[in-house]
């Protein structure tokens, strides 16, 4: 729901309103229903609005509270805003709108930075205190809504996307070697606070940052579940765990129906999105709008999963929409998806989500989506290798199954000046896996995947691709109470039945067995997986462009090897190696870097 941006000065100068306006203009697609800019003293705030809750002008932003104490901008949705509004009214607060934005402002005035503990939802916000000159930035627990930061001489800028900060100007666009190392090791993931650019950082999830008038700041991480067997769940049977998970998911799905406009579902036909549809039908939703996408087959690989999405649509009588994308649309669609990326992302379903979102946005403004279930409930193939109780050697086992490449491999890929002297990606994983608060190796891996890898791959992907068309995606599997419950669930129940065992058990109560027991599927985009004609041409063009030659990121011998056999070279996790290295270069060129 929207895009925010702003600047705060620490040197006595006024903020650069022209730069803030450029940032806001770059965010227009995220909020096509309204815009606003506000400035006072050292700060300027801008907002682009997507009208979801309180469709009147009273919900416009930037918003100042009734007592002229604070002004803020907000992106996301607070699902319990009505309950919080009633609680705050009883505490003496006066409201002028029925928007969740105003609830955020009053919650901050009542509870200060602890307001985030009261929020059920996805959010990023910036709140300026008029009296103290303090700026407060906050991000939701699972990082569903983004917030990028760029420091400059005497100032800090912030925005909902990295390209918006670039539009503001004066950003250090040199490449961060540590981030590039992570990108090539972790399937294009770069962990917060880094991005591939030295001059741009991102506020980590579950973090509130208080920025003082002199530019100093303090971060507070306000949430982190314990991945241990909690005493209150000690005597629960597998059946009781199944029912608890289903009840928590039902609550999560119900919460995400809060809206003043209709809410649809992105339906892949897999277990996760099918469960969302089934639970909504169980709640009495009728004629629910559902949407699926497919592509033409390439290289013998099927390009759609309509068989399963059609089955669910029929079972629950949804108003179903199929989108079949011809391969000749991919080159153009690819450029649009890359332009929408705040950071480079190689997953093939980026294009699928972008094309699907374009069509869905013509029908609805809000959808629920199934992202996050695999990380939360151990659905990926690398988790069984971490099933041993001992955490000894867990980081090495994780690297063997999760990493695209080893540090030694990267010495063949990157030019020496871009390669960090030590294996920074593995060191990061070792530190996270060794941290207290996880009982087993699998618990530590799920914690890492849910709170780091998930945030900066699938979650970011869904936000970027949907919001580029003014479509808000809500992810019930990342409801923080559901995540807390799953974190406490015994590992053997999650690993059962080939992964996501406890979730599959829940699914069997509601779904056809063909959907629950099918092989794990993905959004297939065969033309990218197999480097088909026009996509390969785009790759060659980017890697041979003058900008790529000047940048000198990759070793010439490695690129020649990939280009000589585009479909043969795969990373450890099976991704097309040429696509991964090319996508980073294409993204840099697309964004003028």
Automatic annotation (TrEMBL):
Positions that bind ATP: 266, 293, 369-370
CDD domains assigned to the protein according to its UniProt record, in alphabetical order: Asn_synthase_B_C (cd01991), AsnB (cd00712)
Residues forming coiled coils: none
Residues annotated as domain Glutamine amidotransferase type-2: 2-214
Cross-referenced SUPFAM superfamilies: Adenine nucleotide alpha hydrolases-like (SSF52402), N-terminal nucleophile aminohydrolases (Ntn hydrolases) (SSF56235)
Taxonomic lineage from the root: Bacteria, Bacillati, Actinomycetota, Actinomycetes, Kitasatosporales
Cited Pfam families: Asn_synthase, GATase_7
GO cellular component term of the entry, any: cytosol
Record field: catalytic activity: L-aspartate + L-glutamine + ATP + H2O = L-asparagine + L-glutamate + AMP + diphosphate + H(+)
Gene Ontology terms: biological process: asparagine biosynthetic process
Binding site for L-glutamine: 100
Entry keyword set: Amino-acid biosynthesis, Asparagine biosynthesis, ATP-binding, Glutamine amidotransferase, Nucleotide-binding, Transferase
NCBIfam families: asn_synth_AEB, trio_amidotrans
EC number: 6.3.5.4
Organism: Streptomyces glaucescens
Alphabetized GO MF terms: asparagine synthase (glutamine-hydrolyzing) activity; ATP binding; transferase activity
Protein name: asparagine synthase (glutamine-hydrolyzing)
The protein's annotated pathway: Amino-acid biosynthesis; L-asparagine biosynthesis; L-asparagine from L-aspartate (L-Gln route): step 1/1
């Amino acid at each position: 729901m929207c895009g925010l941006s702003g600047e705060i000065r620490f040197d006595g100068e006024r903020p650069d309103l022209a730069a803030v306006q450029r940032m806001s203009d770059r965010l227009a697609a995220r909020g096509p229903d309204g815009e606003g800019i506000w400035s006072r003293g050292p700060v300027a705030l801008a907002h682009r609005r997507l009208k979801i809750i309180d469709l009147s002008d009273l919900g416009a932003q930037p918003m100042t509270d009734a007592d002229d104490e604070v002004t803020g901008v907000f992106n996301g949705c607070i699902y319990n805003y009505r309950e919080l509004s009633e609680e705050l009214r009883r505490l003496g607060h006066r409201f002028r709108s029925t928007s969740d934005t105003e609830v955020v402002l009053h919650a901050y005035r009542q509870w200060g930075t602890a307001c985030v503990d009261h929020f059920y939802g996805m959010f990023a916000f910036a709140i300026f205190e008029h009296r103290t000159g303090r700026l407060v930035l906050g991000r939701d627990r699972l990082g569903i809504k983004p917030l990028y930061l760029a420091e400059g001489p005497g100032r800090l800028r912030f925005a909902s996307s990295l390209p918006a900060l670039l539009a503001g100007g004066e950003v250090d666009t040199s490449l961060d070697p540590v981030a590039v190392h992570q990108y090539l090791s972790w399937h294009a993931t770069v962990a917060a606070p880094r991005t591939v650019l030295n001059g741009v950082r991102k506020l980590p999830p579950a973090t509130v940052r208080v920025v003082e008038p002199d530019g100093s700041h303090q971060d507070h991480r306000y949430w982190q579940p314990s991945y241990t067997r909690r005493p209150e769940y000690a005597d629960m049977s597998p059946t009781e765990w199944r029912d608890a998970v289903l009840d928590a998911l039902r609550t999560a799905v119900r919460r995400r129906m809060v809206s003043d406009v209709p809410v649809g579902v992105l339906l892949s036909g897999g277990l996760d999105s099918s469960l969302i549809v089934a639970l909504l039908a169980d709640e009495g939703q009728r004629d629910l709008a559902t949407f699926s996408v497919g592509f033409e087959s390439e290289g013998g690989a099927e390009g759609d999963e309509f068989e399963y999405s059609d089955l669910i649509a029929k079972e629950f009588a949804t108003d179903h929409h199929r989108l079949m994308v011809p391969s000749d649309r991919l080159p153009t669609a690819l450029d649009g998806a890359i332009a929408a990326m705040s950071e480079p992302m190689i997953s093939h379903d980026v294009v699928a989500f972008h094309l699907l979102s374009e069509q869905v946005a013509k029908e609805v403004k809000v959808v629920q989506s199934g992202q996050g279930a695999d990380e939360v409930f151990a659905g990926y193939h690398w988790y069984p290798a971490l099933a041993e109780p001992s955490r000894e050697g867990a980081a090495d086992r994780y690297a063997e199954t999760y990493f695209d490449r080893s540090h030694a491999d990267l010495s063949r890929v990157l030019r020496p000046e871009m390669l960090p002297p030590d294996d920074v990606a593995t060191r990061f994983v070792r530190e996270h896996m060794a941290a207290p608060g996880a009982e087993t190796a699998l618990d530590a891996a799920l914690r890492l995947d849910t709170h780091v890898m998930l945030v900066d791959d699938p979650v970011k992907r869904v936000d970027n691709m949907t919001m580029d068309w003014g479509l808000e995606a809500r992810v019930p599997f990342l409801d923080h109470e559901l995540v807390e419950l799953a974190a406490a669930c015994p590992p053997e129940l999650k690993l059962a039945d080939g992964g996501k065992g406890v979730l599959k058990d829940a699914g069997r109560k509601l779904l056809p067995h063909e959907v629950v027991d099918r092989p794990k599927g993905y959004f297939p985009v065969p033309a990218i997986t197999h480097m088909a004609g026009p996509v390969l041409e785009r790759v060659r063009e980017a890697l041979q462009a003058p900008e790529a030659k000047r940048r000198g990121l990759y070793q010439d011998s490695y690129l020649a090897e990939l280009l000589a056999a585009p479909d043969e070279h795969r990373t450890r996790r099976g991704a097309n190696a040429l696509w991964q290295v090319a996508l980073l270069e294409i993204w840099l060129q697309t964004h003028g870097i």
